[in-house]
Amino acid sequence: MGDTLKLLRDLTIIVGIYLYFIAWVYIHFYYQQFGISTESVRIDYNSYLVYSYNVLTSSNFLYWVKVVGLVVAIRWLFIYIISRLKNKNDFFKKTSALLSNNFITVFFTTIRQRYALLPLLIFMVAVFPLLFRVARDVAVNNYRQDRMDTRSLKTIQFIFRKDAGPLSPAVVLDSLLPQDNTFYEDIALIKKDEQQVLKLLGESDKYYIVLQQYPYDKSVGALPSGNVYFINKQDILLSKIILRSL
Known about the structure:
With 246 residues, the protein is of the alpha+beta class. The chain folds into two domains: 2-148, no CATH class; 150-242, no CATH class. The chain contains seven helices and five strands.
């Protein structure tokens, strides 16, 4: 019973390391596509494992699971066939008896017994680059899907404080900035988003991170241009997240 619990504990630790690694890579590359660093997004480390679900259920990950499973199955089948032949065939028995007295065979048998865990350790380390690639590809694919269809992102609107500078509802924007200013349309949109195009990407302790983009046009076949805004929470009097009916 004690050995079983120890084995379960070790497996849980190993699986946890893999899941955390997958989640970190996924989060890093997903937000990187938006120009957002992982450090600027408020994500509890205890919640990282939840993001690994996006990778584990992806077609990319399931494909490699099938490939690795097939390789392992073929290996064990090969070992089983060889063992059966050795037990039934006199030639294999005599050959095994001769080889058992061979110095080289004894040497390699000793090495194999002493370093029995080495192949497993090599396999466990080699899995990391594969998981990295799969998690990165899933993150980039999900980024593209969220850019092509923003309905999965929640719409957000703001009411700003009076001391929020040009974002203040008491300030007429034309009195501060000319309409040809680079940020004129951005500030006007953030102040009053009548068409509800602002989408919440994430938040930190200081900022709401918001996406604005033009609708995706299938005929163009390219992602539309968009902007990511970091809106200071200290300037906000009220924020509203709009939930769509499904």
